Amino acid sequence: MERGFDFDVSAWPPLPRLRGLMVVGTDTGVGKTLIAGAIARRLRLDGRRAAVFKPAASGCRHDRNDLISADAEFLAACADTTQSLAQITPVRFAQPLAPNVAAERLGQSVDLDAIFQAYRRLPQYGEVAVVEGIGGLLCPISDDFWVIHFAKLIGLPLVLVARPGLGTINHTLLTLHAARSAGLHIAAVVINRFPGDNAPFDPSIAANPAQIAQRGKVDRIVLVTDEPDNDVEKATIAAAAEATIAQVPWAQIAGL
């Protein structure tokens, strides 16, 4: 019999249980950063002080003698935080690869202790944490420590971001299964870049929210429409996306 994935985290030091939530994705490129930033912004506008965090980032740009994550810049702007970009994303790589692969190509290992230490400092910067994952839930940070292990260590409710089109039912249900197998709680599924009212009808998309809700036993499905102003690089969030995000009780989900 084949052995399943082992999500045991006893080999790593415990991390503080904070109030907050963790935004994870069914894949890379689904819009986790946009949704995490929009949630942090909404919490700030609601009078909450949010600390933002992304344990590692790849595809970073060189700036003088440092690597800068555009995702960290966007999260910082949305939260209006005093955190440094290095505090938000303590491990950074230039090559757009999974962190363990990027580190291996540099002849290095991923500095998990830097991630753990930075996470422990989050309460200095806010009463609620908004954490963004890397790639999909089973993306390796190091060879033996994946995003799902980090999610289990911090124990925050998950907000799962999915794409709208054909195949998303399978991707989303697989991710829900992995998360629940690890004992993680899914607070919401956000289907990002969903067609707006004026978009042509697409039967491969229209039924997906109901299918995910029913087959995945998800109580809260959030549809964020595809808008040109949703742009992480330009640090903008469309008014329609902000209005949708505002309808969800994020503070309650985060335990406030």
Strand content: 15-25%
Determine the mean pLDDT: 94
Class from secondary-structure proportions: alpha/beta
What Rg, in angstroms, do the CA atoms define? 17 Å
Estimate percent helicity. Answer: 25-40%
Could you please describe the fold and organization of this structure?
- With about 260 residues, the chain is an alpha/beta fold.
- Helix content is about 35%, strand content about 20%.
- The protein has helices at about 30-45, 70-80, 85-90, 100-105, 110-120, 145-155, 170-180, 205, 210-215, 240-245, 250-255, and strands spanning about 20-25, 50-55, 55, 60-65, 65-70, 90, 130-135, 160, 185-195, 220-225.
- The strands form three sheets. It has a six-stranded parallel sheet with strand order 2-7-1-8-9-10, sandwiched between helices. A two-stranded parallel sheet has the order 3-6. It has a two-stranded antiparallel ribbon with strand order 4-5.
- Helix 1 (about 30-45) runs parallel beside helix 2 and helix 7 runs parallel beside helix 9 (about 210-215).
- The longest helix has 14 residues, at about 30-45.
- It is globular, with a radius of gyration of 17 Å.
Which properties best describe this structure?
256 residues; alpha/beta; six-stranded parallel sheet; two-stranded parallel ribbon; 10 strands; 36% helix; 19% strand; globular
SSE inventory with pairings:
Layout: E1 20-25, H1 32-45, E2 50-53, E3 56-57, E4 61-63, E5 66-68, H2 70-79, H3 85-88, E6 91-92, H4 99-105, H5 112-120, E7 128-136, H6 147-154, E8 158-162, H7 168-181, E9 186-194, H8 203-206, H9 208-216, E10 221-225, H10 239-246, H11 250-253
Parallel strand pairs: 1-7, 1-8, 2-7, 3-6, 8-9, 9-10
Antiparallel strand pairs: 4-5
